[in-house]
Amino acid sequence: MEHSNPAGTNTRKNIIEAAREIFARYGFRKATMDDIARAARKGKSSLYHYFTSKEEVFQEVVEGEAAEVKAEISRAVAAEKTPQEKFRAYVITRMTAFKRVANLFSAFKDEYLESYSFIERLRENYNRYEIETITSILKEGLERGAFIVKNLELTAYAIFTAAKGLEYSWALEPDMRKIETNIDSLLDIFFYGLVRR
Length: 197
Fold this sequence. Notes:
Oligomer: single chain
CATH topology of the largest domain: Tetracycline Repressor, domain 2
């Protein structure tokens, strides 16, 4: 397959963009190459010139969305000054991004997709990225004397698991202000604990 010519690269991009919409609307299972071809205004045969299967198109779509979310989180975290602000930026950016990227969200949630090895790799890589992001914020908080963390790995994993556990119910909440209020309440517990000192 040739990916060197700019026209081909653009065609490929257009197909991926069209597929992103189709997968978001119908889900991976119901979407067809015919749907994607129609949305991309291409013949089905020209789709097969760029991609071998619907799975390959979906892989490109979700990997693109994952890269987008990672870049967004990294920018938001880097823009903040204190470790506490970095955490808030991390959680809020993560939630808003996941509400927007429907395909990535289903790649993480849909059990039907678990049989695909690329989904498993995507999940592993993405989860590793998140845990590393949390760990680096925790480390910075420790170095600056803002946090007391007895076990870095365990704390990072617990925060990651909490964020993951809440993303589904929050994804269904249409009011972003309500989500931010909930996030602030949770961060209060995280930063200040439950026990009166």
